[in-house]
Each structure stands twice: as structure tokens, then as C-alpha cells.
Amino acid sequence: MPQAHMEETGLEGAGPARTDSGAPTLRSRLDRWRSQWQGPGIWRRGAVLAVLAVLLGLLMLIHADLPNKVGNLGSLTETFLPWLGLFVPVLLGLALLRRSATALIALLLPAVAWVNLFGGLLTDKSGKGGNFTVATHNVNAENPDPARTARAVAASGADVVALEELSDASRYEKAMAATYKYHSVQGTVGVWSKYPLTDAGPVDIKMGWTRALRATVQTPQGPVAVYVAHLPSVRVKFNAGFTAGQRDNSAQALGQAIAHEPVKKVVLLGDLNGTMNDRSLAPVTSQLRSAQGAAGDGFGFSWPASFPMARIDQIMVRGMDPVSAWTLPATPSDHLPVAARVKI
């Protein structure tokens, strides 16, 4: 009996430590995992993953240099640029599976690049105070319940509301009348205000019909120039890439109008069919400050409402300080309404 016991103990010492049931212990698993991460193999494995990680990082770093001449590749990439970060955990999982130290080190490049670009949006920058609240909503031309949509946006408490894609403005005018005494509709866009509106009129954004307006809101703190715009839609086509030429031309025209604005305090509300990262909107975005970027909580994606992937509905200001910015609950539209509070 003692001899048999000694032989059994010797056999256990030759292999992985096991419990009485024969299953490997946690310690044995950890020892085996550590042994797999030793030796020169960890540097040779995962070369393809390392290359993919470096390319992903470079794409984030040089996105502004991607050409737009072929299918507007640069603008397309910048529209969904934040989503490139999803590839980092995927590559991380594959690198761990392959036990590749080379791939893990290479992953530092896209991880740091993404944090540098969007890390600031992960925190809540909203503050308290402010004296002027605005909201904007693309209500969708085929909205089945305009009255409910209008009431939902008005419930935000905004002093000024902009609506885009109005197919029948009268249905919104009736629903908004109880809250907003002043309003102006130009073409398919409109502005509703608790304060008097003056100098309301269309803005030519080179579309052939009216999809932008400008009005002066006479606030208690002084006049504010309000622009409402709905830039042309963009499409992703297999044979043509990111078709955004008409939108880009309209952005140029809108930027010129804002550049010549005599009122010092300006707010732009609307569906620009592009994100703040899209260099083709620079004629507009270079002059104004994004309320979401300055005082929002998170990315503030607004489209599509069923699964928001991009913020194409914008609130931008000049001569005022954003205090907070947020998205409003979904309405029957395919966009989410967005709102912001600023200090004049």
C-alpha cells in the first residue's frame, strides 16, 4: 500500500496538477497559459494582425488626407469615423487568441489614435445655467403624426425650434401655436420662437427650391441670427461611391451666407446630412462651434432613429457659449430631435 501511494504521487508530479475529480486546477491552467506566452514564437505569430492594426491606426491618423476625388472616399470615411474603433477590440481578441505580442503592441497605435480623436466625447461635458434653449428636428416628409411630433419637440422647453422636411407646414403650425407665438416657414423648413422674429426670409443654398432660412430672434439678451438649413441628401452607390456633390455645393453657399452675417450672435440649426468630421462641411463648421462637441454627453448620434449611427443633425453657435446639449426621445420621424442650451 505505501509503495502504491508513492507511485501515484510520482505520476501526478510529472503532469499538470489535478483535483480529486481529475480536472486541471486553476494554477495548472495559469502555468500553461504563461508557458504559451513565452519563447520567440509570441513575436513571430500574428504578423497579419499587426499589419491590420497599423493600417487601422494610420487610417484614423491620416483620414483628413484621404482623397475625395474618387467617390468622396474621405468624406465617407469621416462620416463613420468613430465606428472604426470597433475594430480595436476585435483585433485585440484575435491577438490574444493567436498569443501574439507583436499584434498587441501594434494595437496601441489605433487605440491611442481613436482616444485622441474621440476620447473627449466619452465624458459628460454638460453644465448648468444658460439662458437660451434651441432644438432642431428633421420631421420626415412622410411623418404619420405631425401633431405628436410637434408637441414632443415643444416639450423640450426650447425657446426656438427649427423643423426641416416640412411637407405640410400647416399641420405643424397648428400644433405649435399654443407654445410659440412667432414663426416663419420658408419652403420646407421653418422656425418657431417664443420671442419676436424679424427679417425672416429664405437663404439660397443653390438647390433650385427653398431648404434654408434666416431670421433674427429678438431675445431679452439681444438679437440672435438663426439659420435653419436642410442640406441635400447623400447616397452611397456601388458604382459612384459617396455621392455628395450637391450637398457640398450647398454647404459652400450656406457658409458664405453665414460669413456675411452682420449679427454677432449666430446659431445654425438643421439637418446638414454630414458630421462635424466631414471636411466637405468645413465652409460651415469652420465658422461655428458644435454645441454637442463643446457641451454634450457622448456622441449624440441622431440618425437613423431606429439605430443612430451618425450625428447629421447639428446645432452650432457663434458668439455664444454652449452649456449643454442632448438628444430628445424618438418621434415618428427617422431622425432624433436634438437640443442645446447656450449662454448669450
UniProtKB/TrEMBL annotation:
Domain of life: Bacteria
TM annotation in the entry: 42-64, 80-97, 104-122
Organism from which the protein derives: Streptomyces hesseae
Protein name listed in UniProt: Endonuclease/exonuclease/phosphatase family protein
Renumbered residue ranges of the record's region Disordered: 1-24
A single MF term (Gene Ontology): endonuclease activity
Domain Endonuclease/exonuclease/phosphatase, residue spans: 135-335
The entry's keywords: Endonuclease, Hydrolase, Membrane, Nuclease, Transmembrane, Transmembrane helix
Pfam families found in the cross-reference section: Exo_endo_phos
InterPro entries found in the cross-reference section: Endo/exonu/phosph_ase_sf, Endo/exonuclease/phosphatase
